[in-house]
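Students often ask why we bother encoding 3D structure as a string. The short answer is that it lets us treat folding as translation between two languages. Here is a chain of 118 residues written in the first language.
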Amino acid sequence: MFTWGLPQVTPQLLPRTARPWRISAVTYIELVQGCRNKQELARIKKGLAMCNTEVLPITEAISDKAMQLIEQYALSHSLQLGDALIAATALEHQLPVLTANAKHFGAVGDLKLEAFKP
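And here it is in the second language, the structure alphabet:
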């Protein structure tokens, strides 16, 4: 299991690996962008493969929803582009967002969150 250098996260995420993971393309990009070297990238890719991860593309509907979320929450709650796209992907596919930072998504009313502590 990959844990971005946080071994205490593994017990919280392990039960969630029983089902295939579905992540936004933005989440994948953020994971890759956070790698410090090729070994970390290989570990991320291996972990995603172990979880049978499907990377969900940004569609026109997701883009439209993200624009609505930015209009609604950027000024009042500082919602950022990446989080808006992740939230829009989850809403479009009726999936929860698994996050260690629920405050990034808390303002989005219809969004289901599964928070964990790193």
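Translate back mentally: The CA atoms of residues 74 and 80 lie 7 Å apart. Keep this in mind for the problem set.
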